[in-house]
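Async update (no meeting this week)

Hi team, since we skipped the sync, here's where things stand on the single-chain job. The sequence we agreed to prioritize is pasted below, unchanged from the tracker. I ran it this morning and attached the output directly underneath so nobody has to dig for it. Comments welcome in thread, and please keep replies under the output.
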Amino acid sequence: MTRTGQQKSRRAHLADASIGVYPSSGRIDRIPVVIHSAGHHMLPEMRARADARDWQVVAEVTTWGKVRELIESAQAQGVVTDATDVGVHAEWLARAAAFLLRVDAIPDAPS
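Output:
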């Protein structure tokens, strides 16, 4: 996986912080992501996945056009989605050095 400049910088800052060396700002920037979902039933799960990775959710959108706008304007560096058609977006995501996390639906527990 190709890492963005901010991802590399964040990893370096985290490694430094683990040995007691902190950036001059005193804080480590979070990676901005956009949540994409055609429906709203998976939003809590996708937000939980982003929060677990300490990513900053900058928007929740329902269209790939809005995702692309946020990625290309550098407002987001990654996408968390439940969409099944992610393959058709792989080329422009790679050109933008953006990452994608696909969240599958959680199956219902047997009754």
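Quick observations from my side:
The radius of gyration is 16 Å.
The chain has a mean pLDDT of 85.
Reply here if anything looks off.
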